Amino acid sequence: MKNTIVGQSGGPTSVINSSLAGVFEAAKSRGSEHVYGMCNGIQGFLEDRYVDLVEIFTKPIDIELLKRTPSSYLGSCRYKLPDINDDGAKELYEKIFAKLDSMNIGYFFYIGGNDSMDTINKLAAYGAGKGSDIRFIGVPKTIDNDLTVTDHTPGYGSAAKYIGVVMKEIIRDATVYGTKYVTVVEIMGRNAGWLTAAAALAKGWDCEGVDMICLPEVPFNVERFVEKVRKMQEKKSSIVIAVSEGVKLEDGRYVCELSDDVHAVDAFGHKSLTGTARFLANTIAKQLDTKTRCIELSTLQRCAGHLTSRTDITEAYQVGGAAVKAAFEGCTGEMVALKRISNAPYQCTTELHPISEIANLEKKVPLEWISEDHTQMKQEFIDYAYPLIQAELTPMFVGGLPQHISL
Amino acid sequence: MKNTIVGQSGGPTSVINSSLAGVFEAAKSRGSEHVYGMCNGIQGFLEDRYVDLVEIFTKPIDIELLKRTPSSYLGSCRYKLPDINDDGAKELYEKIFAKLDSMNIGYFFYIGGNDSMDTINKLAAYGAGKGSDIRFIGVPKTIDNDLTVTDHTPGYGSAAKYIGVVMKEIIRDATVYGTKYVTVVEIMGRNAGWLTAAAALAKGWDCEGVDMICLPEVPFNVERFVEKVRKMQEKKSSIVIAVSEGVKLEDGRYVCELSDDVHAVDAFGHKSLTGTARFLANTIAKQLDTKTRCIELSTLQRCAGHLTSRTDITEAYQVGGAAVKAAFEGCTGEMVALKRISNAPYQCTTELHPISEIANLEKKVPLEWISEDHTQMKQEFIDYAYPLIQAELTPMFVGGLPQHISL
């Protein structure tokens, strides 16, 4: 029986470790003697940093703690494998496959988002080219929900729930004085507005909801935005706005580039986006003479392990298990996707898709789910997102704080 | 039987409505036919905006939802009553007392922090001067924990718990790549560092804790701070720092004044503080050539009703009830305080203190609870804060979100 190896890559989520739990338990139950975990993904693996999870997770409570531990248990990386035809690439790929063979690996799982699927895609293609029998399967994960093919990504439901919950709380906080007040909340999402759209979930019988939602799918115009706020404030004093960090002007520049923050660029060429809400709050304060506040949800929205969606946790575990099933049954170069069967009652299953269909593509919020005036989400989005935030997984509180498990 | 009136004032907390529940239930059970709630505190009351809570809270679940609803249910204000000897002040006070008499008010409760106790102090003094038999009692509330006389303030425990929990999650998120990274987290607290100190609670067997804690009690030196970070980063790559929004330079200026943010001033003359973490993160990025991130916990730390301390909720309810008991037994011009009897097992009771001892004074973190190098809290602080964050009050989730009650 061949061994299994699994890695985590890309940005943290609250449920990425549930997928790790799913891979681990499924691989172990199918007979893998060793289930190795790469430390810091493929980058750490190249430096011989890995552990045997079979030796670490010995008690059932370890798995329960793992499911409640946010951010990647094994550590992560943002390492981009070179194109197979690049200079020196062959050496690197040969090194990886030699290491995998020396560890008697038969099954390779990578839990991650777009960039991580690119890694799986390249490894599977290289393996196929050289006739390797190692199976490479991608396990989807990203709060951004921007992977194609899959109905949604594990990680999104919990982030969406967190955003819905804190928007309710922020709205309540912001209305307390009854005075003129504009709150601009900045939410993650570089090109896809799924997370920002989740602010719409705050609305209910006990909350009037956010007043405006600005997604990167719609070109942003600062003047029109300020004018909308001015009109809204004629009718109510406290205005709460959810804005994506990735909103762009019609000329393609990010709105945050109008601010004076430093914008670094990462290994995948992505600009660091920050300062959108601050820029907009300052602009409103100057032009409308009203008190403003900007709130960046920052990393809290992706690592709030104390507030997860049980639906999301369960699905994250399931995609891990389904990946193992696929690999052990002979599949390779595929990603596990979630396929929604029905909304009410919510039913969802898993299926496989060739990873080449997925890597480096982005799924955006359909324009027809955004209201005509570009300020709210339509019911279609609510129907889509609502099932994903249902139910809770109670943290294990010890001494007043949720307990985690660490490597 | 005389009627009761209650108001909420100052900044929101997660548990201020538990004190409202305590006042309401105690006053009703002692026979008040009407328990009026001022909308937006004394300011709304002056505009005849109030409700009868007896007509509103008719079912037991209303009270349970109230306890789980963050931010002031009745709305708040930042209204400063004039000094009794100021021009025109007599007219205003006479107006207030005439309204109270016309409503047959015998008991007046104000739930708030320092500035709110100033209001109670002035009303009680004016009432005493004119021989009014209305009893005025202050109910303490502030996440800042800066009221004198009381061991701690309701609201602090939940905010401290929130800070402990999210710092654990932020630390976990920030270490995921294993790369050089400095995270500066800005926490509320103008002059007292109680909230920032709560970051120390994150440390445990499953978390190595924050690397530096900067309180406003200790003069801040930007150069020394950067040098400390540089030294820390020689030993570990991810550094997480908790810094109070109120840290001040030796010359008395706030560190955030070194940034380019707008700093408005409120009715009590308090400058709006923001941008401390951003300024420090940018300074570190420039001087140490390392990746940085700033996170402002912003209003989330005071309105996170989804994550409260049950100890805090219970005590908030108790101080409300104790205020009613005191007033109905004839006390006036006093504030209910919490008196700690023992740490382990934690035992705490209530007592009364003349409000004139409390109003406009601030209780700071004792310097002897801060480590010699000004980077960590000593065990004395942990022993003090630990009991206050214990146990949880489970939110009532409906449709995936905690339910609130609204006026």
Describe this structure in words.
The structure is a homodimer of 407-residue chains. With 407 residues, chain A is an alpha/beta fold. The first copy, chain A, has two domains: 3-154 and 305-361, Rossmann fold, CATH 3.40.50.450; 157-303, Phosphofructokinase domain (Rossmann fold). Chain A is 35% helix and 18% strand. Chain A has 13 helices and 13 strands. Chain A has helices spanning 16-29, 41-46, 53-56, 60-67, 89-102, 114-130, 156-174, 194-197, 222-235, 276-288, 300-303, 310-328, 379-385; strands at residues 3-8, 35-38, 50-52, 105-112, 135-140, 181-187, 212-214, 238-244, 291-296, 334-343, 346-354, 397-398, 401-402. In chain A, the strands form three sheets. Chain A has a seven-stranded mixed beta sheet with strand order 3-2-1-4-5-10-11, sandwiched between helices. In chain A, helix 1 (16-29) packs parallel to helix 12. Chain A is globular, with a radius of gyration of 22 Å. The mean pLDDT of chain A is 95.
